[in-house]
Amino acid sequence: MMVSEGGSQGERSDAGGARCRIHVDADGGYNWRVVAQNGRVVAVSAQPFGEYGHCRSAFEKLCRTHVELTGAVQHTAGGNGWMWLLRDGDDTVVAVSARPYERHSTCRSAWQRFRALLAGKVEVTGSCP
């Protein structure tokens, strides 16, 4: 997996236009999210990071080690939908679906598409410190 530094040059065709956006939340934490070519957010970091560099490093590690991560489709906390998640070797959740899904099969397909995106190149864009 290669992660390329992004800018304003646009989307990359080798990843179907997928890109990772790093931004600062209202509490000052950095989060990443993977955005598909159609503009839909497909995955988000499971936790905020205190620094831009830590957030970027966590995403780069996710890309390098995605084949080693375990995943699951499960009910949302409210039990009214489905979500997917990825866990690392320490059983820490590192990525989650960006939204709940009505159907288990749709959620599982979205999870598989996200894993396929990680196998390609994903452009990293967003705010820099």
Instruction: Report the principal-axis shape.
Output: globular
Which strand order spans the largest sheet, edge to edge or round the barrel?
1-8-2-3-4-7-6-5
In round numbers, the mean pLDDT is 83
How many helices does DSSP assign?
2
Structural class: alpha+beta
Supply Rg. 14 Å
Q: Main sheet, how many strands, which sense, barrel?
A: 8 strands, mixed
Q: What is the fold named in CATH at topology level?
A: PH-domain like
Do you know the CATH architecture?
Roll
Strand content: 25-35%
> How many structural domains are formed by the residues?
1
CATH class: Mainly Beta
Distance between the termini: 25 Å
H/E series: EEEEHEEEHE
**Based on the structure, what is the oligomeric state of the protein chains?**
single chain
Unreliable spans? 1-15
Number of strands: 8
Helical fraction equals 10-25%
Please explain how this structure is put together.
The protein has about 130 residues and is of the alpha+beta class. The chain has a single domain (about 5-125), classed as PH-domain like (Roll). Helices cover about 20% and strands about 35% of the residues. The protein is built from two helices and eight strands, in the order ββββαβββαβ. It has helices spanning about 50-65, 105-120; strands at about 5, 20-25, 30-35, 40-45, 70-75, 80-85, 95, 120-125. It has an eight-stranded mixed β-sheet, covered by helices on one side. A hairpin with a 5-residue loop joins strand 2 and strand 3 (about 30-35).
